[in-house]
Design brief:
single chain, 480 residues, alpha/beta, 8-stranded mixed β-sheet, 21 helices, globular
């Protein structure tokens, strides 16, 4: 039971299996059978059953793309080029090497290339030390990854995945170079998590070959691949990247272009509310506890520290410099990043971390930064309930998900659910955010959204027309 409490956290049925074994040991045979039947019926009645069944079938349905002609041919992909040997690029290289596919890994400086290849070897050797891989397998996979400093070595690759720094100008320069050196028909993909792929594609003479392949960090561990179809992406390119995802054992979803695509667009709304809740009086650890109690493996702020809060900080700085009105002014998270507190990688971010320990610990520096921020803005902190935290963090996601569906960025509610289950740790037993909203009732969600719109304002609380229409018609996201 104690082991399952960790490995199957919050799950109902695994603990009932233990109860059934206990009954087999302690009860006469006939009574044991009766107890086992009763436990089975408890599992059948559990709301987790519906969520897990939905997740099971959604994972299989997500690869069937509405609007993509049946039998669309795919392009051959046997040799892959990856730009960037950092954490993300190295992880992506491992995904392909693990599938037996040769990779050319490019960096612009020898030191960065050596460091990246060294980290890949270190990861493989750590796996071998745990007995999950032999030394020969480590060498075989390392042999598939050929480091290079020259774009010319991409002349014969079938697919390029760019995993460079998250900046539009840098990516446009890279794609212009790829356009010049890659063979006709090569697929040019970007791993961007937020940027406009149509703009990136416009830097080439072959926008039909450009797409997004958004891996999640660590890429060699996380199962989700958010493939992005840009305005001019060819049908066979979309079909190919979905097939490649299956080949490297990812759960792939195909989405359209907008800021943040599906996953990060919704995450940014949750992040905005999480920060605002702290502005108003909650603590980061209180917000995170509500999310982990709901079933997420980690809360908003601990996740930010894991990814590095400097990533979002730099994106917000770039958007503010471009005059984007949706970003908002500098917040207390930005101020922590300005102090060089980037998260786990620097030993401190929103939380502090002991050397060799990933456990997030509350930090007086963060508390004083928050208090100073509140004081500047004239905010008197108030008590914030767990129910308000839950509603504001999750209902804002559901409302944004409804807007995404209405805009056609995601074809189906199940695409949104799968992206959140496999990319962001939404508890599978709750079925994903859109399925969960159906379960608690869209009228309940809409009423709360309207209430927060009245008290808080903001575009994020403007009810999605699709949500209003479904409630008016007595329908659910599952009916779409």
């Amino acid at each position: 039971r104690a082991k399952l409490a960790k490995s199957a956290r919050n799950l109902f049925s695994p603990q009932r299996c233990v109860d059934a074994v206990e009954a087999a040991v302690n009860l006469p045979f006939a009574e044991g059978l009766g107890r086992e039947r009763a436990l089975f019926l408890e599992c059948m009645a559990s709301p987790q059953r519906a969520g897990l069944i939905h997740a099971f079938f959604a994972e299989r349905e997500v690869s069937n793309i509405p609007g993509l002609p049946a039998g669309t041919a795919t392009r051959p992909v046997e040799l892959v080029g990856i730009i960037g040997a950092g954490t993300m690029g190295g992880g992506i290289a491992m995904c392909f090497a693990n599938a037996g596919m040769p990779v050319r890994l490019l960096e612009i400086q020898q030191e960065a290339l050596d460091r990246g290849v060294g980290l890949i070897r270190k990861n493989y050797e750590a796996t071998a030390a745990k007995g999950r891989m032999t030394a020969d397998e480590v060498e075989a996979r390392m042999a598939l990854i050929k480091p290079t400093l020259a774009y010319e070595d991409f002349a014969d690759v079938d697919l390029v995945i760019e995993a460079a720094f998250e900046g539009m100008e840098i990516k446009k320069q890279i794609f212009a170079k790829l356009d010049a050196v890659c063979k006709p028909g090569a697929i040019l993909a970007t791993n961007t998590s937020t940027l406009n792929i149509d703009e990136i594609a416009a830097a080439t003479s072959r926008p039909q070959d450009v797409c997004g392949m958004h891996f999640f960090s660590p890429a060699n561990v996380m199962k989700l691949l958010e493939n992005v179809r840009a305005a001019k992406t060819a049908d066979d390119v979309a079909a190919t990247i979905m097939a490649v995802g299956k080949r490297i054992k990812k759960v792939s979803a195909l989405v359209g272009v907008c800021y943040g695509f599906v996953g990060n667009r919704m995450l940014h709304q949750r992040g905005r509310e999480a920060v605002a809740l702290v502005d108003e009086g909650a603590s980061p650890e209180q917000v995170d506890k509500v999310l982990t109690d709901f079933g997420f493996p980690m809360g908003q702020f601990a996740m930010g520290d894991l990814a590095g809060i400097d990533v979002g900080w730099r994106i917000r700085k770039e958007r503010r410099a471009a005059g984007d009105p949706d970003v908002g002014p500098e917040n207390w998270v930005d101020r922590l990043a300005e102090q060089g507190r980037f998260g786990q990688k620097t030993g401190a971010g929103i939380y502090r971390y002991e050397k060799g320990d990933r456990t997030p610990r509350p930090d007086p520096v963060t508390q004083s930064t928050i208090e100073a921020y509140r004081l500047e803005r004239g905010v008197a902190p108030r008590a914030v309930s767990e129910q308000e935290i839950l509603e504001r963090c999750l209902y804002v996601m559901v409302n944004e998900g409804a807007k995404i569906l209405e805009e056609g960025i995601a074809a189906r509610a199940l695409d949104v659910d799968i992206i959140w289950i496999y990319g962001y740790g939404f508890p599978a037993y709750r079925g994903g955010p859109m399925f969960w909203a159906d379960q608690i009732g869209l009228s309940t969600v809409l009423e709360a959204v309207k209430g927060y719109q009245a008290t808080l304002g903001g575009a994020q609380w403007r009810p999605a027309p699709l949500l209003e229409r479904l409630v008016a018609e007595g329908k659910s996201f599952a009916d779409l």
